[in-house]
């Protein structure tokens, strides 16, 4: 997810210095990625009813590789925008359904650790990419995009067989709880609003 969504930042100086994009266009590329993420969140809600979970997850892995790989070639702002949009959409679908699969597939004792590891893995990825990319962009951003595409492809190949453990269709988890009462539903609403505000606050520096 982080490769497709957030690991764009370290490439921005190189893209500007080599005239791939202007400063304004660099910001718009981040915005297209964020817009793709929103679209991907919506797709993650209704596409499983059509494609099933397995096909959707595997399609998202392929889409992430294609989206990042497209940015290897500087074929203009529109081309780069499309690549960032596709990778953002794929990232949203993967982060939503990967978490759900972890919750479904493991015991109560182990799922908390695994969820924590999944989230911390995103931060670790950002640190590794940020430290390694400067050595790959000396001749321009193409090498940096190539590095990200290769890592994404490797991760996709590793994850591919594990998707077979996912159900074909979305089903209730064995740990699913009954719908909340109205007064408790208000607590969930407030929690949702808090998460929305948090997302707004972190958005600028992820663009």
Which keywords apply here?
about 210 residues; mainly alpha; Growth Hormone, Chain: A; 2 domains; about 75% helix
Describe this structure in words.
With 207 residues, the protein is an all-alpha fold. The protein folds into 2 domains: 2-176, MFS general substrate transporter like domains (Growth Hormone, Chain: A), CATH 1.20.1250.20; 177-207. The chain is 74% helix and 0% strand. The protein is built from 9 helices and no strands. The model has no long low-confidence stretch (mean pLDDT 80).
Outline:
The chain is globular and about 50 Å long. It is mainly α.
Itemize the secondary structure elements and their pairings.
Elements: H1 2-5, H2 12-17, H3 23-46, H4 48-51, H5 53-70, H6 77-105, H7 108-132, H8 141-159, H9 182-206
The SS-based structural class is mainly alpha
Give the averaged pLDDT, no decimals: 80
Order of helices and strands: HHHHHHHHH
Overall number of structural domains: 2
């Amino acid at each position: 997810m982080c490769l497709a969504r957030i690991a764009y930042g370290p490439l921005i100086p190189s893209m500007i210095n080599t005239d791939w994009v202007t400063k304004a266009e660099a910001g718009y590329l981040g915005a297209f990625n964020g817009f793709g993420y929103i679209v991907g969140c919506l797709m993650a809600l209704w596409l499983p009813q059509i494609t099933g979970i397995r096909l959707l997850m595997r399609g998202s892995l392929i889409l992430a590789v294609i989206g990042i790989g497209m940015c290897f070639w500087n074929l203009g702002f529109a081309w780069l925008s499309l690549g960032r949009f596709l990778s953002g959409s794929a990232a949203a679908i993967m982060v939503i359904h990967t978490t759900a699969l972890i919750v479904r597939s493991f015991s109560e004792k182990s799922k908390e650790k695994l969820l924590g590891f999944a989230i911390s893995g995103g931060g670790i990825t950002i640190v590794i990419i940020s430290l390694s990319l400067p050595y790959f962009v000396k001749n321009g951003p193409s090498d940096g995009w190539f590095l990200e595409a290769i890592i994404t492809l490797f991760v996709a190949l590793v994850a591919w067989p594990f998707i077979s453990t996912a159900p074909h269709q979305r089903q209730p988890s064995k740990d699913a709880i009954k719908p909340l009462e109205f007064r408790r539903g208000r607590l969930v609403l407030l929690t949702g609003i808090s998460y929305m505000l948090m997302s707004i606050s972190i958005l600028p520096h992820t663009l």
